[in-house]
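Reopening closed ticket. The problem is back. First fold of the pair:
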Amino acid sequence: MFENSPCGYITLGVNGRIARVNKTLLEWIGRSADEMIGKRFSDFLNMAGRIFYETHIAPLLRMQGFFNEFAIDMMAAGGEPMQMICNALEGRDDAGKPLFTRLALLKATDRRRYEQELLAAREAAKNSLANERETSELREQFIAVLGHDLRNPLASISAGARILGRDAKTEKEHQVVAMLQTTVTRMAELIDNVLDFARGRLGGGITLDRNARKPLEPVLHQVIDELRLSSPGRQIEAEYAIDTPVDCDRTRIGQLVSNLVGNALSHGTASQPVRVRAETEDGLFKLSVANGGEPIPQAAMERLFEPFFRGEVRASRQGLGLGLHIASQIAKAHEGVLTVTSTPEETRFTFVMPLR
């Protein structure tokens, strides 16, 4: 992930060892992915940095789930230290169990230059509003940086809600905590869509972590349950007939389903259920999301999967207009296709990908 990002990224597994590292960081320190995967992050720090990380950063990260900006020296392949500015965020499941740690790094010497270049680009765009391409490039760079910076306060809100949830006693207190967590989930989805769009436009594209060994159905269950919680009063029917392993990125498929069902909840009539079906058949994995309501106008059908395109939606479900675009890109990354049909009876999105 983040192959062409201006930042270096490292993903640590729950065992503290490096699971992923992007091309940007590898080029900075002159190392290969094979050289780093499976090692501890501290193995690539100087002695002072190793002590600082293991005794100060790692314990606080486990305690609060994030660490906003610290400086640390990484050792390049040639043995010279390279000072980095680092942000750390711990990914956790709904129960608060750690899943991974994401480290975002920027060379200290590049930080000020990068900020100045970004500010200069913003000023240039303000003075050249007629230049649509320049404005678009600025927007994409800005939302990439903004989306990354939003994760830290969001993690803090989520951690605070979990702490409040443990002490909640009345039904009203539990409802407030549930509302906070639902809002965090919604914001996380928006940030994911923004970053995926930015990465795609900046050349990285959507990358996958495919795994046919783990079942897909539990992920679909979780996504549907979260959407039911965030849309009280709306009915979502789900039917699964997955009897063959699906070689896919389960998190990405969950994101695709969340975007499609969210779209159905926004545009479908509230008096009819949203219907989700996932099945394996004839060497294919098929997933469909259908809703009742007014058919999509033909003019909108032609632009439906374009970024930042939005139809008329209720105020409570306003978004960025990226959900269907990201869903189509996830389908493409899986060597599949996402299509839509819309009649007075129903609107149906269908994702089909080959089984491996």
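Second fold of the pair, where the issue appears:
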Amino acid sequence: MPPRTASVRLDAAPPPGPDLRHHGDAEVRGADAGLTDLAVNVRTGTPPAWLKARIAASLDGLAAYPDGRAARRAVAARHGLPVERVLLTSGAAEAFVLLARAVAARRPVVVHPQFTEPEAALRDAGHEVGRVLLDARDGFRLEPAAVPEDADLVVVGNPTNPTSVLHPAKTLASLARPGRTLVVDEAFMDAVPGERAALAGRTDLPGLVVLRSLTKTWGLAGLRIGYVLAAPETVAALERAQPLWPVSSPALAAAEACCTPRALAEAAAAAEEIAADRAHLLARLGGLPQIRTAGPAAGPFVLVRLADADRVRAKLRDRGFAVRRGDTFPGLGPDWLRLAVRDRATTDRFVTALGEVLG
């Protein structure tokens, strides 16, 4: 039987709609900073003390310009790659801006729902962006045939924010071909046990660009550190589009520290803990008949659908909880919310409050 594609559509020139620049941190700013945060996908209790110490020690060298060679070697070794295939960036978000400026794409396509910064960066750079919209009825799964054959820049998240869907590596690899840049955002892959489905470290796929972030698992959103893994010529082109010294010395120290065997073992243990906490959250949500969860979820967050989601979100704020609205993601709407996975005690408090709101 041929794959079902009726629920997947391509919008060649989508009209103005969702606010692509709205992110979860907007839910917990200023007076809302005291809310229990289920809106931002940064792991709680981070950065760990040993990582803070490494970052603090780097402050003695702030008089010198940043030197990223050691951090670049550490990232390359972590993925078994030559240093020429690694570019350090000021968070993974910077990489989207560099790609939009440096890659001469005639027909860029973004697979949605997903993190909105790639499309925003492409539009800011003057590109007309096509959208492949995945459907909840298919579990937001991607059929490679849904991506236009003439798309020469394709952006997809894995696991995808906000759906938490983990696309099989084979599915994404099938999108690679000569003349196409395939950008896979793996910002949350280190939160997946065993990093199954990862393409980081692959050198056999033409045009592959993998983005990674160290801000989610390690709690470094305020420090801004991420990296690009790609062919040397692509790395060189992106590097030419970067300003001088784009990554600070403390961020470079963090990148090097997070690639040590100790750090990788800690991240692997955290991924297992997140998976168990996510299972607990899904089980508790399963007791609320008004809630429908997208899935199966593989990231440190889950996507849920419910009636009057905006009203529910406001009522939850009254009870001390911030959750991420879903209507700013293309392909979703006002009846979706994204919930970060937290520890079981926090989940129990949250689900109790949610049940009260739902009546």
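Update: turned out to be a display glitch only; the data is intact. The chain has eleven helices and 13 strands. Confidence is low (pLDDT under 50) at residues 1-9. Please close again.
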